Amino acid sequence: MPLIRQSDVDEVKARTNIADIVGERVALRSAGVGSLKGLCPFHDEKSPSFYVRPQVGYYHCFGCGESGDVYTFLREMDHVSFTEAVERLAGRIGYTLHYEDGGAAPETSGRSRLFAANAAAAEFFRSQLMSPEAEPARRFLGERGFDAGAASHFGVGYAPQGWDAMLKALSAQGFTREELTTAGLVSTNQRGGVYDRFRGRLVWPIRDVTGQTIGFGARKLYDDDQGPKYLNTPETPIYKKAQVLYGLDLAKRDIARGDPKRVVVVEGYTDVMACHLAGVTTAIATCGTAFGSEHVTVLRRIMGDDSASGEVVFTFDGDEAGQKAAIRAFAEDSRFNAQTYVAVAPDGLDPCDLRLQRGDGAVRGLLDHKVPMFEFVIDRRIGGFDLASVEGRIGALRSAAPIVAAIRDRMLRAGYERVLARKLGMDPREVHGAVEQAARRASNGGSSKAGQGEMRPGGSPEPRPMPGSERPTASPDSPLQRPTLGTLPRTVDTALERDALTGALLYGHRIDPALLARALAIPFRTPALEAVRGNVAAAADRTRPGWAMTAIDAVREPYRQLAGELLARDFPARDDEHAVASVNDICRRLILRSLDQEKNELLGAVQRAAPTSEEGRALRMRLRDLDVERRALIDVE
Q: Which DSSP string do the residues of 408-455 spell out, in sequence order?
């Protein structure tokens, strides 16, 4: 396979802002000079330990140790090859790649072909929506208040009734039957025949958080259709329904910008459309599955909810199915740092019907009547009991006590104990006793939700160590422990050397080359930092984009993770200009430290040498030279 020219690889990376690529999946916010942070996309966490340095094109997680450049990020997140990652970014910026030996661009394969097939199918379905056959689809949309503009905004299309209309169209574009089958676009009968999966249906494209089409949801339109009311793409290498949220590609920007950040979880595609058109542009929905833990993880990365200020509002139908959906969502409440609420429209209308019957204002007003998730679930738990009887009240208490016991915040728990006591008309002390008993059962491995771990309904996250203060952990692939910032000695010398390396990696291109070279030529006193220093000092051209990454990659194990942390950590300065001044000062301090050490050694040697000897005179001359050098460095300060 032809290789992309290295000069093109470097140019594409230089023109790509890694913060833009990471920011499509993770809510990033400022974390100091030239640094951004967010929740790590590679492991589950509640407090941000994932840092991005746009200036050097680098990311590093202090929690799990994942690090790399923009190509590494795409390869890890999307499971694509290095070549595919470069080609994707080149296409994004409109850069024409060149291949070694004049070779042509290699044919894409694997996941890239699945993305391309879904994109082609989405375009095919959109083009069919205006065909004469699609009149029932257009009528369906119109009856629900959606015009052509709304359909275009959400990419809604129509799948023709024939068995192979899409198959023929995509085959003509070069897609093989194997690719279309793997993408979930066609099905195979018992005799091996291939036919369109979606036929005679209104079709919504389902996109990932970056906006790439990965699957479809389709609603039947004809009475003779024996299939389910809604039919989704099956599980494929790129479509995992437990990780997909419909509308998130459209909602993510407003979610991240909100104050407070708010997500509205609805139940269907038309509900998402209705909410967005009514001005609730942070609405999303699951795709043919219940709201689960992986959905929480995806949302938290977008929200960046390392505080309790965010809101997640679930809207459910008022019927029994909607109440069951609320209980299932409640099972994931503890995974949010944000506060969770439930909003049920008057008369149990879903957002689509609410907009149709009462207008956009009613949809927006739905959020004004939200109630805390805990209160909603408590009401549902006690709603099935006869509270006029003693037996009913006791049964309701036993049913609701585990819910209150699951609240982590002690003050909030006490407040809900009083709420429950008031709802039941019981003595608060009785309710408190039942809640405490439920909490003890949960801690002993009971089957209630509290037994799965205490909950934090909108409270603060568990305190976690700041980056650089973590305790060392054993390397999974080495019997040795990998040095990290948290394992370094807490001394003045170590702090000086640590800041020198971070400053050199981040601002080396703006520091006087002679000054920096002299400072980095001095051996460090901290062994782990000394292992990194040599590679940073050996960098030939610090003006070349990516030189810091090259230096880190050259660091030997087990010190490479420490090198990555040095590049990703916050540098103590309020802006770039002060950072550059600080690095210059640190370089001078390193040199002064070396001169002082040499001076102390010379003073001892002078005392041992004969005053009139040639050796003594040479030592005293070197001492005078050292004093001149020291004064020159001090005068610069």
A: --HHHHHHHHHHHHHHHT--HHHHHHHHHHHHHHHHTT-SSGGGG--B
Q: What is the DSSP letter of 99?
A: B
Contact assessment for residue 368 and residue 333, using Cβ atoms and an 8 Å cutoff: no
pLDDT of residue 458 exceeding 50: no
pLDDT digits 0-9 by tens, 489-531? 999 999 999 999 999 998 888 888 888 998 999 999 999 999 9
- Non-local CB neighbours of 269 within 8 Å, separated by 6+ positions: 154, 204, 217, 219, 246, 285
Question: Using 50, 70 and 90 to split pLDDT, how confident is the model at 324?
Answer: low
Residue 5: other Cβ atoms inside 10 A? 14
Whether the pLDDT of residue 474 is over 80: the answer is: no
CB distance 260 to 301 below 8 Å: no
61 within 8 A of 553, measured Cβ to Cβ: no
CA 414/CA 354 separation, integer angstroms: 36
Determine the Cα–Cα distance for residues 39 and 48; give it in Å rounded to an integer. 4
CA 595 to chain centre: 47
C-alpha 550/C-alpha 334 separation (Å) is 42
| DSSP H or E segment with residue 231 | strand 230-232
> d(Cα 244, Cα 206) in Å, to the nearest integer?
8
Query: Quick check: 59 pLDDT over 60?
Result: yes
**The residue type at 536:** V
More confident site: 313 or 615: 313
pLDDT confidence tier of residue 102, bands split at 50, 70 and 90: low
Per the listing, tokens 């004809």 go with 222
| This prediction's pTM | 0.70
List the structure tokens of 25: 């999946």
Question: Which helix (H) or strand (E) segment is 328 a member of?
Answer: helix 320-330
Concatenating the DSSP letter of every residue in 251-272 gives HHHHHHH-SS-EEEEESSHHHH
User: What is the β-pairing status of strands 311-315 and 262-266?
Assistant: parallel
Number of Cβ within 10 Å of residue 42's Cβ equals 16
Judge if the upstream peptide bond of residue 260 is cis by omega within 30 degrees of 0.
yes
Whether the pLDDT of residue 476 is over 60: the answer is: no
Long-range pairs for 512-517 at CB < 8 Å and ≥24 separation? Answer: 512/584, 513/542, 515/584, 515/587, 515/588, 515/591, 516/542, 516/587
What is the Cα–Cα distance from 168 to 175, expressed in whole angstroms? 10
